[in-house]
Each structure stands twice: as structure tokens, then as C-alpha cells.
Amino acid sequence: MTAPTPGHDDCGRTLEQLSDYLQTGASDDQDHIEHCPQCQAGLAALRRLDTLTKALIEDDVKRANPADEPWFRSILDNLRLETRSGRTLPLTANNPNDALSETEGSVIALIRAAGDAVSGSTIGRCRIDGDLTVPGAPVRVDLNVTAVWGTSLYGLADELRKAVADALAAHTELNVTAINITVTDLATEQP
Amino acid sequence: MNLFRRTAASLQSSSDALLAERAAGGDIDAFEALARRHTPAMRAQARRLTRSASDADDAVQDALLRAWSGIPDLREPAAVRGWMMRIAANSALALIRRRGPGMASEDELVLHPDPGPGPEASSISGSALTHLGHALSGLPEHQRQCWVLREMGGLSYEEIAKVLDISETSVRGRITRARSTLVKEMEAWR
Amino acid sequence: MNNRTQDLTGLEQTVRQAVLSTDGVDRLYPADPTWRAALKGGLALATGQQTTPQDVDLKVQAQAPTVRLRIGVTGTIPAPAVARTVSAVVRQHLLEAFPGQEPQLTVQICAIGKDGQQQETAM
User: B94: nearest CA in chain C?
Assistant: First the structure.
């Protein structure tokens, strides 16, 4: 069922056709649309609606900013109590009746923090590959980073590797066989 | 050995993809930065869908929880905005279904604020915005929902069809009728 | 039964304080991660409905006292060492309270290094 646009009964073109034309810039009916005064008037009306729509949405979004409203703060605070644990890394205990461990989540966060302490990049995705639930099993660390334009990438990779290796040596008992760094993006300022 | 924890504020200018990758790895500050960036749009969409400020907030809360939960499985970190908007749309629609018919408009004021001076540096008046907002509220619910999901949510016809469990043809038809009504009303008002 | 419960509460408090005063320990975390399921379930639970965190989960069973706890460490001392020290400290208190009963301890580190925006919850 097609709907005519205002004052459009004459040439019989539909709103949907004009809308599609506006959107795609092309139409089977292009010749007619480009020369018909009613169609041009319809297009102008649609363009006005689109402009107004954009402005309305922008206004809606501006008004909807929760900033520091309590409900918004509260949900973030609740999520902060979350510790996304992941797998469990065993730690050596002195007493056989003890089960000591650290979470994969805590180690990922550690790697991120160690990597972020190196200037010139920000850590993105961070994965530990290998069976880290088994003591001494070889594992590999894979990091994606966004680097700042102009940073020497080789120097950066070396620094990152060292920072991450040191942190893991201090705080885990992992057998890290490799730390792979991939620069996935560049940013003009500290990302 | 130095450890540096990035706060949400310091991550403000990071790309969506970077924030999504970090959030997927458990970085709550990165998730907060994403939330700050995209909640206004999620909330604006929820308000136009539910037509109630408090229901919209409930829907957005639900959506943020689901987003935190699901972000480790997000395949395209760069597409996180659209993903969050879709989750927010689903949360709002689920709430509307649970709420039942005819339970809207307790917070009309929110959606039809007093016309201000209008957007800066443009010829659009605040009252034009208010009038379009009224016209939008006056649409039949099915048409308005499709329109909101398309214009505010940025969903494709296919995605809208999936979300509302209707055919793509129906989606197209509803949006066409909505645009037709809106363009007539705004031209008449002019 | 009441006396027993009181004793355990006192002991839990003692253990909690001892853990928090251990060098390298930042804070305790809720012992049972299933509280998280409450968050996921529905809309109404999102805002501020805090379940009381069980920092020290202390059960006295027929064989031995069992303690589970989850901690965050500051990062100034290697995490594995802190875990071992904490278990030694807890063991000492439990042996005092239940002489001759070998405690079974579970200590898990769930954060390394202080969080810049750590919330001080009722711990």
C-alpha cells in the first residue's frame, strides 16, 4: 500500500520512492524525479524532516546524559565488585592442606597495568594461551596494543615485553615461553 | 616495577574498539568509559520506546548489566556501539512487553520539554523540535517503535524485523507510514 | 548453639583483622562469587542491593576447620608470597581456637595492585 506525499496526487510517485531516492541517490525513476516539481517539493519536505529528526535525536541524547546521577553511579559501583575471574592459576603452598591460587582475571589486569606503565601505548586485548591451571605448563602471552604515532615500535615492543615479563615473574608462578605484541592501531595522542 | 591503572576518565579519548577489548578482558574502567560514552544514546532510545523516564532507566540498567556480561564474547570490538544499542533496544522492548498495554506516558514532560532556544548555530527552533516530538508520540506504537529503532538505534531493516519478530516487509511498511505521517504534520505546521 | 555461633563470629572477626593487617594485603573480596548471579537476574537488583559479603567463610566440620577467603594484594610484595603468609597467619589463629585440628585453607588472590577507583565497601 503506497502513500502519496503532500500535494503529490498528480504524478503518482510515492513517498517511499522519494525516500529511497534520497537515501541511495539513485532510482529507476530518476529522470522523472529530477524534473518533476511535485517530486522536488516532496524531496525538500523529506530533507527538512531528516534535518529536524537529526536535531531532535541530538537534543534527546544531550538531555539523556546520566553523568553522575545516583542510579548510574550505583550500577557502575556494583559492577566494580565484580572480579571477572576466568581460570584459576595454582600457587605453591607450604602446607599440603592449603589450596592457594590466583585468578586469571587478576593476572590479566596485572599484565594490563604493567603494560600501561610503559609510555607510548595502551594495552588492548590480552590473552594467556596455554593450560595455566597446570603448574609449570608453558604459556604464551598475546597482547594487542594501540601505539602513539611516532613511537619507535621495536623499542616499544621490547619495553612492553620486559615490563610484562617482570610483573609475571614477580606475581605468578607461570612458565612464560613467549610474549607476543601486536600493534593493532595507532593514535595521535596517548590512546 | 611499575603498575599503572587507567581510570575511566583517562580512557575518555580511547577508541571504542580499544575500550571494548579491555572491557572484554575484565577492565571495569574501560567499561565505565564505554558506558559514559553510549548511555545517553541508549537512554534516549529507551525513553522514546517506553515513553517513561523511570522505565527507560530500568531498561538501560538491565542493558548495561547484559553488556558487561556479554562483552567478552563480542567478536567485533569496533562495533560495540551498535551492539550496545541493540541490547538496549531489546531491554526496552522486553520491559514494554512485561509492563502490558496502555502503561505509558507517566513522564511526558521528559519527552516534551519547554522549547528552548533550539540547537546552537542553526535555523531550527526549539518549538519545531517539540512539535516533531509530539508528532512522534502520536504515532501508533508499532510505527513509532520501528521508526525509533531505525533512526535512533541505527538498526537495519533485517535487525528490526528480528528484534520485533515481524517480517522485513512489515518493518518497511511501518517506517514508510511513520515518515509519511511525520512529514505531513511538519509541513502542515510550517 | 548460640554460644557456638558467637564464638565463630568472634573468630571470623579475628581472622579477618589478621588477614587485613598482613603485609601486602589490600582488601578482602566476597568469598562466594555466586552473589554475582543475583546481579545478572533482573532489573530491580541493579541498584544498591548489596548482599552482605562473606569475607571469611568459616566452617567447622567434624574433621577440621575450613576457611575460604579471597583477597586483593597491593603489589608491593610478590603475590604468591602474600598468599603463603596469609595462610600461615590464618592457620595460626585456627590452631589456637581448635587445638589439634588441622585447618584446611583456601586462599585465592583476585586482584593484584590497587585499583585506582576502589570503592570502600563494608569489609
Answer: C43
